[in-house]
Amino acid sequence: MAEQPGWLGTATLVFFRRGRGTVHQGGATAPLKLQRGYDHGDGRWQLPLLHTAGGLVGGDQLAVDVRAGAGSQALITTVAAQKIYGSVGRSRQVPEGRWSRQSLHMHLAEAADLEWMPQETILFDAGLFEQHCLVELARDAVWLGVEVVRLGCTAAGQRLNRGEWRSRLEVWRGEHPLLIDPQRLSAEGRDCPHGMDTEPVYGTLVWAGVQLPDGALLERCRSDRRGLAGTMVCDAIAEAGHAGLICRYRGPSTVAARFWFARVWARLRAFRQLPPPALPRVWPFQENPLLGAS
């Protein structure tokens, strides 16, 4: 019997200014579904994206295309964590496993402000997942992106003994790359001191398109780590005359990673004199992560 092809889900989103706020148009194909968007009153449109199948298996593919119109302000999140199920050794026809893949393309027009803040990705043992995220910024556009991945279902005592996670982020302004960030996590680097050092959770926050005036903002973002478990670093990125910052998390807790990133998120909003962030309704936080920010 021939191996069955994977599921291909797509979503196309366009954000644009309407009056003093932002609205969206778009559509999706199964298993992706667009939830109802809403405005918290700060002019930023929040849109949750739902994966109705509950997770990806080998061969599944997702493609998300986002166009943020001039001056628009939007936040895209996901309704639940993205689960990547085991593939290696599960099929007699393809014992080496099949990759699940996600492609993200985000184009921001002049002065657009887009925040991509999905919930975490859980890579179960023997899962294979590859993501490519391409961000294109026009003049004065600003992008914030967050990614948190857990290697294995540690609550059930599972580690990532087989399988692999790959991610490649590219942020461009015109023909100039602001950041090219390829990453790879597998069992090989799980116990390496220069890799995960036995920790199961890895995260990245990237904020691109704004010139940092000095190191004071970085120090304040670093101070937001207090009280959280894990190793957290934050530094500036600067290419082609533009700048931003990048934060990394390595540790035991997806909650700690997301708490720190939420505090940095609030810090960056305040730096730009924007309204403070409103937590998306679909986030499962039982405590307010912003309470630790000063």
Automatic annotation (TrEMBL):
Any single Gene Ontology cellular-component annotation: cytoplasm
Source organism of the structure: Aphanocapsa feldmannii 277cV
Domain of life of the source: Bacteria
GO molecular function terms listed in the Swiss-Prot or TrEMBL record: nickel cation binding
Keywords carried by this UniProt record: Chaperone, Cytoplasm, Nickel insertion
Places the protein is found: Cytoplasm
Family annotation (InterPro entries): UreD (IPR002669)
Family statement: Belongs to the UreD family.
Quaternary structure note: UreD, UreF and UreG form a complex that acts as a GTP-hydrolysis-dependent molecular chaperone, activating the urease apoprotein by helping to assemble the nickel containing metallocenter of UreC. The UreE protein probably delivers the nickel.
Function, in words: Required for maturation of urease via the functional incorporation of the urease nickel metallocenter.
Chaperone listed as a keyword: yes
Name of protein: Urease accessory protein UreD
UniProt-listed PANTHER family: UREASE ACCESSORY PROTEIN D
Pfam families referenced in this protein's UniProt entry, alphabetically: UreD (PF01774)
